[in-house]
Write a structure and sequence with these properties.
Keywords: Isomerase. This protein has 3 helices and no strands. By secondary structure, it is an all-alpha fold. The radius of gyration is 18 Å and the shape is elongated. It binds ligand ISJ. The ligand C=C(O[C@@H]1C=C(C(=O)O)C=C[C@H]1O)C(=O)O binds next to α1, α2 and α3.
Length: 95
């Protein structure tokens, strides 16, 4: 099938915009966490903060639930991002 139906083309165009926004948002988040990693290393704080993570997961699960997104998915997603941030912080701290 060579012709893409207009609705499918429109939806894919929006998906492309959303994916671009997600990349930009993640890039901004990692800029912030880079600086957090530097500050924590300077202050001798550990790379991970499990209590903060627990609050974030609970908050994001509630937001997901309210907005019709699967809370399990939201939790997996934020844990995936946080795990990467912690690797960066370990590298910054030289641990
Ligand atoms: C960014 C921080 O470092 C780690 C990464 C977190 C994150 O990516 O949200 C949260 C807690 C920490 O385990 C922080 O302590 O705030």
């Amino acid at each position: 099938m060579s012709e893409v139906p207009p609705e499918l083309a429109r939806l894919r165009s929006s998906i492309d915009n959303i994916d671009a926004a997600l990349v930009h948002l993640l890039a901004e988040r990692f800029k912030c966490t880079q600086r957090v990693g530097e500050l924590k290393a300077e202050m001798g704080m550990p790379p991970a903060d499990p209590a903060r993570e627990e609050r974030q997961v609970a908050r994001l699960r509630a937001l997901a639930d309210e907005s019709g997104l699967d809370p399990e998915f939201a939790e997996k997603f934020i844990n995936f991002v946080i795990a990467e941030v912690i690797h960066h912080h370990e590298r910054i701290a030289g641990t």
